[in-house]
Amino acid sequence: MNQPSNDMPSREAPRMILAPGSKLRAPRAKRSPDSAKPNPGQDLVPKLGKLSAAILRYGAPLLDRLDERDDVALWRDVMKMIITLWNASVVEQSCGDESVLGEVRAGIEKTMPLELLPLVETLVRRRQLFADDLRFVGSWTLREVSGSEVTLQCEAVLLR
Question: Where along the chain do its domains lie?
Answer without folding.
Answer: 44-158
